[in-house]
């Protein structure tokens, strides 16, 4: 039995893609859902929960077993979750995860012993995870600043260390990465490409409108980009390309989105599913504008053959906040520079 832990809608989508793309499933002819149980470690923010509910319904409709776990409902929730998941963890032969930086997932990884592991995308963080693993570094999200670790980080350091060992292949376990991102894995890790074949087969082709649509980002919420600079950039891009709609990232704040709608005139859309599925179903603009993010890698795959143009706008250095991570500019440049099948746009003046 395979056991997947997901904490975001995109992770669940990529688990479904992994299940349908597995070579052993194709050889055996059995249903991709036959030996996979998905455990949703439910987040707390309403938009993520709503999208995950919809994705869970979709997965169940495809025949997958989905277990919803209120993993963050109070101080005792983590221990209760681990106790309840103990039996299914012991039975699993392969563990599938979407976010190796998640403290919750790292805690679960300390319990899996020699089981085989698969990491599916939770966005561009996969690129940083593989790079850190190859360099032998501790697992730290790219937008976090360095420096002294606080009390919580010191307490969780042994958990992170053990999780990193579990994510390193050995004689006892294999490790694979199923990704649509360009990565160069360390020796021993198998990389399989996610080309969104199931999404293309299951949804669309989309109805295409004449105008342009914009894709939102949470770079302001993660402390990387200045709010005023971001709003000015969105307004400039919308005017230059005739954009009419703005598809909000699930982590964007309501206050920011209200300001954006008033100051730019864009219609703010809060998607109820990952954007790859929304775009594939349509209607969607003939041009999709984005800042450096996951979608500049995934949308060209999901929309292959439709003629829709995906364009990415670079982040200008002056947009960054003073306390942004020193790694931010370089990482965002790599996200844009390695994207295939996209058009590059200069940052608006």
Summarize the entry for a quick read:
The protein is of the alpha/beta class and 349 residues long. The protein contains 13 helices and 13 strands. The protein has a 7-stranded parallel sheet with strand order 3-2-1-4-5-6-7, sandwiched between helices. It has a 6-stranded parallel sheet with strand order 10-9-8-11-12-13, sandwiched between helices.
Q: Care to count the β-strands?
A: 13
Arithmetic mean of pLDDT = 89
Q: Low-confidence parts lasting 5 or more residues at pLDDT below 50?
A: none
Biggest sheet: strand arrangement: 3-2-1-4-5-6-7
Biggest β-sheet strands, sense, barrel = 7 strands, parallel
Number of helices in the DSSP assignment: 13
- Taken from the alpha-carbon principal axes, the silhouette is globular
As a whole number of angstroms, the C-alpha radius of gyration is 20 Å
Percent of residues in helices: 40-55%
Tell me the β content.
15-25%
- Separation, N- and C-terminal Cα atoms: 54 Å
| Structural class determined from secondary elements | alpha/beta
List the helices and strands in order.
Answer: EHHEHEHEHEHHEEHEHEHEHEHEHE
């Amino acid at each position: 039995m395979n056991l997947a832990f997901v904490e975001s809608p995109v992770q669940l989508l990529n688990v479904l893609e992994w299940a349908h793309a597995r070579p052993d499933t194709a050889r055996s002819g059995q249903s991709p859902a036959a030996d996979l149980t998905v455990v949703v470690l439910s987040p707390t923010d309403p938009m993520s929960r709503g999208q995950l509910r919809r994705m869970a319904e979709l997965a169940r409709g495809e025949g997958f077993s989905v277990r919803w776990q209120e993993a963050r409902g109070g101080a005792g929730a983590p221990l209760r979750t681990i106790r309840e998941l103990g039996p299914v963890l012991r039975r699993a032969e392969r563990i599938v995860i979407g976010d190796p930086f998640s403290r919750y997932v790292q805690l679960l990884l300390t319990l899996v012993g020699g089981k085989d592991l698969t990491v599916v995308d939770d966005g561009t963080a996969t690129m940083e995870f593989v790079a850190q693993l190859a360099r032998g570094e501790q697992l730290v999200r790219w937008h976090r600043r360095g420096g002294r670790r606080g009390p919580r980080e010191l307490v969780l350091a042994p958990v992170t260390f053990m999780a990193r060992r579990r994510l390193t292949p050995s004689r006892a376990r294999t490790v694979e990465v199923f990704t649509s991102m360009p990565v160069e894995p360390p020796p021993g890790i198998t990389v399989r490409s996610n080309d969104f074949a199931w999404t293309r087969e299951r949804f669309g082709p989309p109805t295409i409108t004449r105008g342009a649509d914009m894709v939102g980002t949470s770079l302001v919420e993660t402390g990387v980009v200045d709010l005023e600079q971001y709003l000015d950039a969105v307004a400039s891009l919308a005017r230059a390309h005739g954009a009419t709609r703005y598809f909000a990232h699930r982590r964007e704040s309501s206050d920011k989105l209200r300001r954006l709608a008033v100051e730019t005139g864009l219609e703010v859309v809060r998607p109820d599913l990952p954007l790859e599925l929304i775009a594939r179903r349509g209607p969607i603009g003939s041009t999709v504008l984005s800042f450096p993010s996951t979608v500049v890698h995934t949308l060209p795959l999901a929309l292959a053959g439709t003629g829709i143009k995906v364009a990415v706008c670079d982040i200008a250095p002056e947009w960054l906040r003073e306390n942004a991570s020193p790694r931010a500019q370089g990482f965002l440049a790599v996200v844009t520079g390695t994207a295939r099948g996209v058009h590059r746009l200069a940052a608006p003046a």
